[in-house]
Amino acid sequence: MADKNNNQSPQNCQSNEEDEVWAKMNSLTKKIKNVEIRHTHFTIGRASGNLIQIKDIRLSGRHCIINRMLDENGKMIVCLEDASTNGTYHNGSLIGKGSTRELKNGDEIFLLKEGEGVSTEDEIGFIFVVLKDFSKAEQPNSQDKANDQEKLEKEIEKSRLEINQSKEELEKKAQEEQKIRKQISQMADQFDCGICYMTMHQAVSLMPCLHTFCGGCFSDWLNRQKDCPSCRENVVEVKKHSLINCLIENYLNINPQLKRSEEEIKHLESLNMFKNDIVNIDKLLEEQQKQKNAKLQAQQQQEQQNKDIKMKDESENNDQEDPDGLISSEDSAEEELPQKRVMNKRGVKTPIPKPTKKQQKPIRKIPVTIQNKKKAVAPAKKR
Ligand SMILES: [Zn+2]
Ligand SMILES: [Zn+2]
Question: Is residue 357 part of a domain?
Answer without folding.
Answer: yes
